[in-house]
Design brief:
Layout: H1 4-11, H2 22-53, H3 55-69, H4 85-97, H5 114-121
Amino acid sequence: MQSFLDLLVTLSGGNTGGGYTDIELREEVITLTIAGTDTSAVAIGYVFKLLAKYPDVQEKVYQELCKVFGDSNRPVVKEDLPKLQYLERVVKETLRLFPPVAFIIRKVLNDIALRKLMNTLK
């Protein structure tokens, strides 16, 4: 299994000279690390907020976790993820309601006649 850094080096062309420089690799890793932690933390915070607000949903998530993990203290492995379907839906709904990344909403200034536009594109 390759480390994340080894994977970046390989994908960038390896040691052939056409890939990232050491500085570019370092900056890429820093960017991914910092951006990833902030958005993940925001998303997790909103999941907790909604679970606290809706105790019935919280109970269903708890029951699903008990069903998958029981009394064990083992860490989550990727084989567990398909079994956590309700939790996945809760996370996706949370991300729909509270997207952690800002997006731009554009305002249409003029009406557009699509039929007329399509004729000009032909």
